[in-house]
Structure to design on (45 residues):
């Protein structure tokens, strides 16, 4: 039998987990796009 307190913590953990997944996905897509679409910079010519 679960208590109300355990259910609230489970919901909070799922919300934080979903937020981190979305944030990681957005950052990953942005970083991959930067590597693909921006040409490399020549430091030494």
């Amino acid at each position: 039998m679960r208590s109300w307190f355990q259910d609230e913590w489970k919901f909070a953990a799922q919300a934080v987990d979903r937020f981190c997944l979305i944030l990681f996905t957005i950052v990953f897509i942005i970083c991959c796009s930067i590597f693909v679409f921006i040409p490399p910079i020549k430091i030494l010519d």
Q: What stands out?
A: Residues 17 and 26 are 14 Å apart (CA to CA). DSSP finds one helix and no strands in the chain. The chain has a mean pLDDT of 90.
